[in-house]
Amino acid sequence: MVPVPGEGSPAPTAQQADYRARLHALATGRGVRVAVIDTGVARHDQLARLESGPDLVAPDSPDPHLDCDMHGTVVAGVIAARDTGIAPSATILSIRQSSAHYRSDARDAEARGAGDLESLARAITAAVDADADVINVSVVSCVAPAIAAKLNTRPLDDALRLAEDSGALIVAAAGNTGGSGSGCSPGDVVYPAHGPTVLSVAAVEEPRDHADYSLPGRLAAPGTVPLGLSPTGGWARGDAASPLALAADEVQPLTGTSFAAPVIAGTAALLRERFPDATPAQLRERLHATAHPGSGFVDPLAAVSATTFSQSRVVRPAFVAHPAQRDAEPARRLAWLAGSLAFLALAIACAAALRPRRIREEDCFNARHVT
Q: Cα(287)–Cα(150) distance, rounded to whole angstroms?
């Protein structure tokens, strides 16, 4: 990730500011707890309501706020950053479940990092035990169908059932193709997105086209975050070291279904505030009913301002493949809301002499170990 100074950052347009004002006049996520099962969520001035969950990556020296991978913090920011988040008043519960900087099983030569289906099941259970209302999972496991048929997924299935029965809505990334770094292939079974009660989220690009890197999902949201929360403090954009970079100094945007899912999770947090007694099934119904037909694209304002559950039209879940509509404006508005809403906040952070907290190299980048 590349730090971004506050000076010279563009401000939101009047239309974008108006959109945010109208959205948050209805709900801000206050009183709603959103669990972020990811690589950890770092403490940040933009995340005023951040709670500590378990660290399943390094349980012997736990720190759920150590985000070596610079991923979970960005995800949490999309949901609840003070000046950029969909639900800025929501509480974030950090559950550190995976990291590419750790190795979890010496017997598995294909293991890319700590985190597996068993630990995912434990993370979901921990989120339920902590009274999470919404659970965002932007880390996925992609498995070929022939292998998936032989997997014992009972612990994960039980955890998903527990969440549903306890009133927690699970939102998960649909998965990226290998070209975007996740290693998924079309036709793979993607966990936990494959679960029947999980809202899987595909990524779209302007003008609301299905992103080439995205696997299908039940709903869709912008997958690019122009500006994200940095785990070391402040703001950042992309990764100059990305293998997709055409030149050494080229900065790639933060892109993936990982960042589409929290748009939906944040929207669900707003709905939970407005309708505290709604079941996960009712929240799913409302999100489906208010999504754009054919594309599955969710506009948070449309979802939050729509009629009551009993009056809303019922739309059956359908996996999004290639959106039919090409209206660019909602996608532009949501991309700004989900990632770069807070350009004004950068100047504030600069004026306040924000001092980034450095993650120690020995804590992260030399942390590869086998247990």
A: 33
Which pTM does this prediction carry? 0.81
- DSSP bridge partners of 222: 204
- Inter-residue contact 364 to 330 (CB < 8 Å): no
Residues 255 and 70 sit within 8 Å (Cβ to Cβ): no
pLDDT, mean of residues 46-75: 94
> Which residue numbers are catalytic?
38, 71, 258
* Short-list 115, 116, 97, 102, CA closest to 364: 102
Q: What kind of architecture, by CATH, is found in domain 2-364?
A: 3-Layer(aba) Sandwich (3.40)
Nearest to 122 by CA among 147, 154, 97, 87: 97
Strand 235-237: give its sheet, edge to edge.
Answer: 2-3, 235-237, 228-229
pLDDT of residue 178: 72
Angle at 242 between CA 240 and CA 247, to 5 degrees: 60
For the beta carbon of residue 207, count every other beta carbon within 10 angstroms: 14
In this predicted structure, what is the pLDDT of residue 239? 60
Among residues 317, 321, 320, the alpha carbon closest in space to that of 288 is found at 317
Residues in contact with 29: Cβ distance below 8 Å, sequence separation at least 6, in sequence order: 80, 85, 86, 87, 88, 89, 90, 266, 269, 270, 272, 273
Domain ranges of the chain: 2-364
Contact partners, residue 25, CB within 8 Å, separation at least 6: none
- Classify 81 as helix, strand or coil: coil
